Every structure is written in structure tokens, then in C-alpha cells.
Amino acid sequence: MKVFNKSFTHQEAIPEQGIAAALEVMRSGRLHRYNTADGEQSQVDLLELEFAAYLGVPYCLACASGGYALHVAMRAAGVQPGDKVLCNAFTLAPVPGAIHNSGAEPVLVETASDYCIDAPDLEYKAETSGAKYLLLSHMRGHIADMDRIMAICERHGLCLIEDCAHTMGASWKGRKSGTFGDVACFSTQTYKHLNAGEGGLLTTRDDSLMARAIICSGSYMLYARHAAAPPSQAFDNIRYQTPNFSGRMDNLRAAVLRPQLAELDRRCARWNRLHALIAATLAASPWVLMPARAPQEAYVASSVQFSLPGFSDAQLRRVVDACAGRGVVLKWFGEPEPQGYTSRYDSWRYLGDMPRLPQTEAVLHDLLDMRIPLTFSEDDCSLIASIIVDEVQAAAART
């Protein structure tokens, strides 16, 4: 019986250019983003300019984490305590956590069979909830029909906040993820598309929103030293009205990220090659259902998701455990108890009593997920896929 013996948490090395830049920052002792000489641009300034240019937007703010960027985005967009915020029911805990942190009330939206937010339920809840904000999570890299989402936002006057933690480099009809909403947030946590250990990036085209975000991030009155930022007059009143929630990125992390950003498109293409290899093998199994993906979606598949329709809890548990015994780490989003980074909406009990979401529960019950590190080769991915298919077949035979 073949066994896979590589780590699912071992990332690619930081590029040598990033290591050299990080050493230079450490030798200087100037890790803080504002510790610069007159006229000098810090590593954080340069990262913000480069990421804004990559997305084709004017403004970018580098933050301490993706979750912090989400919180600041909501505060800067005007979310107040008690406001209702529409949000995917299928997402990771930092997303509802950011809503809770703002004092707002989440309105969870059902999940469609393609793992994206359910557009009819979104339309209904936009009509009936009174919410004026949508925090849209492109969960595990699956992009919903953005034409339909934007039409719903326009009809109901929704401010769209995009959570692009899993879609950096992806696009819909050639338009990059993160450029549809009023504001977007990205993550540079270790298992995302750029690796700084922790980190986040906030982008927008809106002068006032960006001015509030910069003050929120902890600029004090140093906002004029931001390069990827609106003109200083945008801060004239905002600087007196906006609290400081210090959560800046430092120069050390920015130095590590900049060379990775230059390699992002190459990385995305390689992720997709590995994903395609795994997905083709899984899709050939009569027990495996791969999600439908629209031709308008140019995704970045740094992970793979698939469903096992009709499998019982015991069978799904058997697949996960048997694959783990052969070195393949799967996550089951329908797990009754939170595990690792995964949790179901009904485990976020700090949100209070939430209405049941039967469609989401049905989708998550069958849903398995696997990370695809770029340290894996094509042969590795072929072996992994064959192990999964073997164990799915074995579990299917044991009803």
C-alpha cells in the first residue's frame, strides 16, 4: 500500500532576494514602517505601491493580519455597532470574527452547490434584513458569479467588502478579485498565496475610505508618509473623527513579501497545474463530485475541494482517517466539532442564536478539503489523488 510522506505545511523557501532585504532591515534596526529618512520609502511603502499596481487600484494599506484588515475595512466603510452585515455561512472564523469585532450583527447567507454564496438567498436577505453591507468571502478560492453579485449590491445599495484571502491573483471575466467591491482585503498568512507568517493587505479606490483605514491602522498624524494613499486633504476632517486601532505591517514582513509578489503569477499557474492533475483523478471516481466552475472564473487553486454525496458521517470519517494513515491530510467541513482551521457556522456561538441553514449544512456535510503546497511535485499530486480515490472506494464499499 503506497503512502505519502511529505508535509502538508511545508512551504516554499522565501526567495533569496527577500532574505537579503530582510537581513538589511534587521541590520538597520528600522523595522517600523515610519522609521525612515526624509524622502525615503520604506519596504512597507514599496509593497503597498507594488500591490496596488498589481491590482490596478490607487490605494493599498499593509496590515498586521488579514483579519485585522477585515476589521479596519468594515470600520472605514462605516459599519457601526448594531448594523447588520450579510456574510457567507461557509467561510472561516476570522470573517464572522471581524463582524463581531465591529459590534455589528452578521446575517449568514446560504451556500450553493458550487460552494459559493447562494445568490437567491442573498437577494432575499438583502431585501428583508435591512443590511447595507455585504462581506463576501471568496471561500477556498471559489468566485461566485460577480455579475449577479454586483447587480444585487446595486439593487439594494449594499457596500461590498471583498474577503480575498484565497483569491489573490484570481479573476472574473479578466477583472481581478478584489477590484469589484468598495474595499477588499487579502491575507499573507503562511498558507496563503504570499507568505509573511502573518499579514494583510487592504485595497480600495475610495479616498475617504482609505483615509479612515490609514488612521485606523495606527498612522497617528503620519498619514502623509503613505505613498499608496489619497492626497492629504482627504484627511482634513477624518483625522479628528477616526480612532486608532494600531495594526500596521512592519518592514521585515514587507521585505519578505515583495519578491514573492513579483513571482505571484508564476506561483498561481503552478498551483493550477497541480490542482488540475489532482482534480482529473478525483473526478474520474464515480463517488466523487467536483464543483462546477464557471468559464468566466480564472481561479487560483492552492487547495482542492470535493464532495462525497450520499456518504454517511461514518464513511466520511473513515475517508479522512484512512487518508491520514497514508499521509494525506484532508479536512472535513461537515465535522461536528471545530478542527484546526475549519469550523461550521453553528460553532460560532459568540454570534448568538443563528437561524438554521439547511442548504449550507447539506453542502458542508459532504465537503472535503485539501491544501496543495507548492513544495509538492506532479508525481506527489498523482500519488495523493490515487490514495484519496482508493480510500473513497473502500469507504463506499462499507455501507
Features:
single chain; three-stranded antiparallel sheet; globular; Aspartate Aminotransferase, domain 1; alpha/beta; seven-stranded mixed sheet; Aspartate Aminotransferase, domain 2; 13 helices; 399 residues
Walk me through what this model shows.
- The longest helix is centred in the C-terminal third of the chain and has 20 residues.
- Helix 2 packs parallel to helix 9 and helix 10 runs parallel beside helix 13.
- Strand 4, helix 6 and strand 5 form a beta-alpha-beta unit.
- The strands form 3 sheets. Strands 1-9-8-5-4-2-3 form a 7-stranded mixed β-sheet, with helices on both faces. It has a 3-stranded antiparallel β-sheet with strand order 7-6-10, with no helix packed on it.
- It is globular, with a radius of gyration of 21 Å.
- The chain starts with 15 loop residues before the first helix and ends with a helix.
- With 399 residues, the chain is of the alpha/beta class.
- It contains 13 helices and 13 strands.
- The protein has 2 domains: 247 residues, Type I PLP-dependent aspartate aminotransferase-like (Major domain) (Aspartate Aminotransferase, domain 2), CATH 3.40.640; 133 residues, Aspartate Aminotransferase, domain 1 (Alpha-Beta Complex), CATH 3.90.1150.
Q: How would you summarize what this structure contains?
A:
The chain folds into 2 domains: 16-262, Aspartate Aminotransferase, domain 2; 264-396, Aspartate Aminotransferase, domain 1.
